[in-house]
Predict the 3D structure of the following.
Amino acid sequence: MKELCEEISISTNAIDTEHFLTQRNDIAEFFKGKKQFLMENFYRKMRKDYDILMNGKDPVGEKWNFDHDNRNKYKGEVPIPPA
């Protein structure tokens, strides 16, 4: 966005806001020096930092995610509602 605004000569200002849990540079700091940029690792950190869906130090449901449950092909049992 910044580059686009510079390109078309629109002044901008980026600010931190209470509408987000993270600050502008948190994710850059988290991935600094890492070879793998996996968002799931950042989301786990956020859950721990803010005690979201956690039972102490463990995730609720004893798993960090249930992605494997959602990888099956849709069987058409429940119709998808129109957009």
